[in-house]
């Protein structure tokens, strides 16, 4: 009951703090640009073979989806910080936490609200993007729901980290650190794929390790794999490893399990840290 | 008939809190009974807010125990009937005043009809701002909202940390009336305030903290010591002198008499007796150490009980002073009951 109340409050906060409107504005710009880009792609490169067109569509779709996932991740990570650390610093938390409620309920409520917000954004904006691609160049990804779910999971992982950080450091710092780690993991993932392509195991391990430490990049790669045409891999096997916007393998159940466990562990740590915090 | 023993509103024992190297609270113990208004006094940094936050589970004590309304404070449920106005009062700026109250009613798990919530906003003077966002409120209005939040979920204990810090004189008077109405309804109040005059007017008991320790704890009458009566009398015969001596230790300077009242409960009766003995009574003025003076004495380490009789009180007109007199006698009566328990507690601590 308390969890749902706090989740509802978090969603209301997102809606009223203009975050929703800013996100909507950014998304509309991105979707508009991508619609224009896809339309140009079709007009300029009308002579592409069907295989080339699929590679182009998959790559550009993944590129735009990366933009969307970035917006979702940035938005939720910067919401997660103020919602917990900001409330503790400003004093809003004092009157609330003096009520007969457990701090863990407040934390889980906020997490649920943020996940709903991030997931809702990914679902709406991502689906709109898929429709744009379908209308402009006639491409429809093989597993759109899986892809969008993985993007939402990526946002959930990052905001959970943002919540943990916001229990120990200031709101702004927690947002910046979370987004910094997100970017670092993505770059480490790209470095890892270059290592894979070059057959250099130690470089490839950079990507693997970073995907274990922060599963955002791993989930993102799973999402990319779900958006791209499966028939491409046998034809363009060599090029896959080098491209940051194509992924050669879908996610294993083990990795998804690890990602879920990671989120649960980080949320648990955030709970412990929040419980011990003096207000 | 078996007597029902009610648990205290607040009971805490041995509270201790250290922030890095600084000890903020060092073995604080006190009890606030139900229906009692208790003042928490002390200089800046004495640990008052830390104690309040430990009572409410906002700060984890390093040691010590707290019971709220008869339940251990480690259970969140112990705060179900507790209202709190923090020193740092901030409420979700994106919500309206009415929504903030709705939220707190839900969090408290209380069933408060919409009409009562509106009435609560009206009580603090925000009835016409119910639909406005809190972000646009002045500090004083936010503090008024904080009072409404503290009172909305039908509390049995209200903890107010500097409730008038952002209020104008009118607002302060409103808060005083509010405290008196809470007292009349039997709601226990723990009040931390720097406005000693306010505390003296509304509190039944006072706990004084300094350097994280309790340096004094008792009813106002206990803390302020005995009552004095200053009289200007003519034609004082032997019988009248005996009557005065029966009321307390008498010091005489010309026709001015100062009686340190010991057991005397009824000043009008004393005056009537004196008149009956042929004494001409020109003036009767009560005198008392003010709480402010007593607080300063205690904080400066001077524990003399009768130091500094309140000269200002002597200048008040007799009728008003007589009213004050009665009140302080009632306090002494109430204090006599509380005193034994307090010393027992000190003994056990």
From TrEMBL, chain A:
<feature type="transmembrane region" description="Helical">
    <location>
        <begin position="59"/>
        <end position="80"/>
    </location>
</feature>
<keyword id="KW-1133">Transmembrane helix</keyword>
<feature type="transmembrane region" description="Helical">
    <location>
        <begin position="255"/>
        <end position="274"/>
    </location>
</feature>
<keyword id="KW-0472">Membrane</keyword>
<feature type="transmembrane region" description="Helical">
    <location>
        <begin position="111"/>
        <end position="133"/>
    </location>
</feature>
<feature type="transmembrane region" description="Helical">
    <location>
        <begin position="172"/>
        <end position="194"/>
    </location>
</feature>
<protein>
    <recommendedName>
        <fullName>ABC transporter permease</fullName>
    </recommendedName>
</protein>
<dbReference type="GO" id="GO:0005886">
    <property type="term" value="C:plasma membrane"/>
</dbReference>
<feature type="transmembrane region" description="Helical">
    <location>
        <begin position="20"/>
        <end position="39"/>
    </location>
</feature>
<feature type="transmembrane region" description="Helical">
    <location>
        <begin position="145"/>
        <end position="165"/>
    </location>
</feature>
<dbReference type="GO" id="GO:0140359">
    <property type="term" value="F:ABC-type transporter activity"/>
</dbReference>
<dbReference type="Pfam" id="PF12679">
    <property type="entry name" value="ABC2_membrane_2"/>
</dbReference>
<keyword id="KW-0812">Transmembrane</keyword>
UniProtKB/TrEMBL annotation, chain B:
<protein>
    <submittedName>
        <fullName>ABC transporter ATP-binding protein</fullName>
    </submittedName>
</protein>
<dbReference type="GO" id="GO:0016887">
    <property type="term" value="F:ATP hydrolysis activity"/>
</dbReference>
<keyword id="KW-0813">Transport</keyword>
<feature type="domain" description="ABC transporter">
    <location>
        <begin position="10"/>
        <end position="236"/>
    </location>
</feature>
<feature type="region of interest" description="Disordered">
    <location>
        <begin position="307"/>
        <end position="349"/>
    </location>
</feature>
<dbReference type="InterPro" id="IPR027417">
    <property type="entry name" value="P-loop_NTPase"/>
</dbReference>
<feature type="compositionally biased region" description="Basic and acidic residues">
    <location>
        <begin position="313"/>
        <end position="330"/>
    </location>
</feature>
<dbReference type="InterPro" id="IPR003439">
    <property type="entry name" value="ABC_transporter-like_ATP-bd"/>
</dbReference>
<dbReference type="InterPro" id="IPR003593">
    <property type="entry name" value="AAA+_ATPase"/>
</dbReference>
<feature type="compositionally biased region" description="Basic and acidic residues">
    <location>
        <begin position="339"/>
        <end position="349"/>
    </location>
</feature>
<keyword id="KW-0547">Nucleotide-binding</keyword>
<dbReference type="InterPro" id="IPR017871">
    <property type="entry name" value="ABC_transporter-like_CS"/>
</dbReference>
<dbReference type="Pfam" id="PF00005">
    <property type="entry name" value="ABC_tran"/>
</dbReference>
<keyword id="KW-0067">ATP-binding</keyword>
<comment type="similarity">
    <text>Belongs to the ABC transporter superfamily.</text>
</comment>
<dbReference type="GO" id="GO:0005524">
    <property type="term" value="F:ATP binding"/>
</dbReference>
